[in-house]
Each structure stands twice: as C-alpha cells, then as structure tokens.
Amino acid sequence: MRATSDAISTQNATSGSGGADGVLGAAAAFWLLTALIGQWLFFYYIASFYGPAMASGNYEAWSVLSTMGAKGYVEGDTAGNMTFGAHALAAGIIAFGGALQLVPQIRARAPVFHRWNGRLFLLTVVGLSLTGFYLVWGRGSPPDSLGEMSTTLNGVLILAFAGLAGRYAMARRITIHRRWAMRLYLVSNAQWFLRIGVFAWFVGNMALGREVSMSDPFFSIWAFSCYLVPIAVLELYLRARDRGGPIARTAVASLLVLLTLLMGLGIFAFFMFSQKILSGAPLSLG
Known about the structure:
Layout: H1 19-56, H2 78-101, H3 104-109, H4 111-138, H5 146-170, H6 174-188, H7 190-207, H8 217-243, H9 246-279
Helix pairs in contact: 1-2, 1-9, 2-4, 4-5, 5-6, 5-8, 6-8, 7-8, 7-9, 8-9
C-alpha cells in the first residue's frame, strides 16, 4: 500500500506558485518529523506497558488505568482482558508501521517492503476496529457515553476507509487509493491523537493558570474531533496543494505549523506522563 506519504509530499516546490509551494512543503515535512517522533514514542510506551503483561498473563498490571477512567483490566474477564491487550498492541503496530508508510524514501527505495507493510497495516486496522467494537458493545453494559459512541463511529470509519483504500489499490487507481489510505491512517490513529490533544489541553491551560476539570466541554468535543479534525486538515492540505493559490497555500502552511507545535506539546507531555506509568510512580497531571 502506497499509503500516506503523499500527505507530506513536497513536489509542489517546483511548480508555478514558487515560494508558497516551498512553504507548504516545509510545513508538511515539519509535521512528518514531529509525527514520526510521537508515533514511535507511543509505540515504545505500548510495547513496554502492554507487551509484558500480554506475554505473562499479568493483566492486573493494567488496573492502574482505572485511575484515569479507562476500562482496562476487569477481574475474571480473561477474554475481555486479552481483547483489550490485543487492541492496545494493534494500536502500537499501527503507530510504528503507519509511520514507516509516511517516509517517502522507503516507498522509493524499498517498494516491496512498502507494499507488504501496507497490507499488514490494512489487516491490523481492521482488527483494531473489530476489537474496539467488542470492547464497547460486547464487554459488559451497552455504551452510554460519548466516548464509547465516538469509538464506534471511529471503527465504522476505519472499516469504510480500509475498504475504499483496498478497493482502489486492487483496481490500480493509485492516486485515489493514496487519498483514502491517508484518511485511513488518520482515523486509525485516533487514540494517539486523543491522548496528545488531551495532554496539550492540560499543559496549555496550566500554563495560563487555568484549572482544568474533566467536565470541561473540550473532552466531549475532542472525543470525536480527535479523528475528525485531522481529516479536515488533510482535506485542506490536499486542496491547497493541488488547486490552491499562493495565499491559500501559505495559510494552510501556517495552520499546519501551528497544529504541529500543539501536537509536539502534547507528544512531550504524554511521553512524560507515560514514563510515570511505566515506572509505577504516582499518577498526576500536575
């Protein structure tokens, strides 16, 4: 699968709009570098936290997640605990393998690896979606929160985008395939975007001296926006890259830089918090 490398393409640097194209390409490359760092740090956290427990069967180690409102370990629910662990590890595979799909040098110099990695990515996101449905609808009571509804919608979008990306790949309509693969990559990483967005919100508000409450409307909004906003930004980027004039391309480039800075803030904050989880230190957002 020649997936999401077009998302950071800098091909327009030599086209008619000149400097605006170069600015847009540089902004996209800045996003790529930041995303690569964040995704691989996320993979490290997932492998370190969920991997040993899955290998040893010590699912109780995940009980610390309950302090953050997450339903990880449930006593006596072996099937549910295993599914939860598989779901988390799938997110790690998506983070690591998906990030590799973003690197244009890999597509150019190792096309066979790129295609097989894309196929693995496609299978993994389908598994992620199906296990997510089970955790929401089959593990205990039916969903009754916006977060669970958001997970359901996210899973539906993953399956739909995966089907479209695979369909156009098999039809050899590569340009259309790449666009759907980019959208698939973004919705498949919703849990990563959710975390870095939440931690960027916390850090930003603390820097402003504002106390954050879990009842803030932001958290309900971000439950859906964590994958809808990246999709919207991608559409703006594609339209600016393909049909936008210098003003539009400069504006989208500026937006990308701003969002990437916020993304970097969230990546750093979540990485520091994840180290507390791995070390067993008391958890706090302060």
